[in-house]
Amino acid sequence: MERVNYTLLTEFILMGIPYPLRLKTFLFTFFLLIYILTQLGNLLILITVWADPQLHARPMYTFLGVLSIIDMGISCITVPRFMMNFILGIIPIPFSGCVAQLYFYHFLGSTQCFLYTLMAYDRYLAICWPLNYPVLMTAKLSTLLVAGAWVAGSFHGALQAILTFRLPYCGPNQVDYFFCDIPAVLRLACADTTVNELVTFVDIGVVVVSCFFLILLSYIQIIRAILRIRTADGRRRAFSTCGAHVTVVTVYYVPCAFIYLRPEANSPLDGAAALFPTAITPFLNPLIYTLRNQEVKMALKRMLGGPRTKSEI
């Protein structure tokens, strides 16, 4: 029986996304600034939630602290190597590095999907069942829910990594993307990828669609409850609390659906769309959750030793 003779790849070349060469210095500076602000902003939220007893004891801010950890991780996985292409040129990534990048991106990304759902459920209980909220959402329950999100995300990431890299890769090795992601890597496989594409579509589709549907259902109930609030100030505060979460969910889910939930995910716009969940959303989260959240701003004042207002005394 004749054996197929091929050499398996030991590295991949991430081609990045197309850009005018005259803008490479500007783009490097822009994404470097985005990366630094993302890390500092999320670290500041994490420290604030952990250090302030009033926030640390509340499940809503436990979820926010975990979200900051995830945002910092996703940004670290993708943005630094992406920035290197602007200054150092295209640098190969080892095969094992590509596997790790794909695993951790989908691990953290799916965990973030689950966490957004938990945050919507938390807001639903707080607004629709305010008197029973301390009983329904205890610190122990919120810890168990977060742990479950981490475990489910880890399983999802491992499944996608195993399915993707069980296939042989024998050349070419140029990934037409700025990080190792499933659609771009599968195009280089030296085998039939039909099963992989189907499983990826179904698996990611179940995670994204189910989480989005649960979030949508929660907010339908939340809006109904808010409209029953008699005072205009009460309605404004409730909408303000939920508006930040709705904004972040929209910015995160729409690009993900565009990338993964199409029959043939091979569009030049995929790279631009992927910048939202990898770079833009982690950058926006600290801004949205601090600028629109009065309790976080007051906690920052207390931590930095700022003057206390009457409402804080």
Automatic annotation (TrEMBL):
It is a multi-pass membrane protein. Keywords: Cell membrane, G-protein coupled receptor, Membrane, Olfaction, Receptor, Sensory transduction, Transducer, Transmembrane, Transmembrane helix. GO terms for cellular component: plasma membrane. It comes from Heterocephalus glaber (Naked mole rat). Its main location: membrane. It is found in: Cell membrane. This is Olfactory receptor 10G3. Residues 41-289 form the G-protein coupled receptors family 1 profile domain. Belongs to the G-protein coupled receptor 1 family. InterPro entries: GPCR_Rhodpsn, GPCR_Rhodpsn_7TM, Olfact_rcpt.
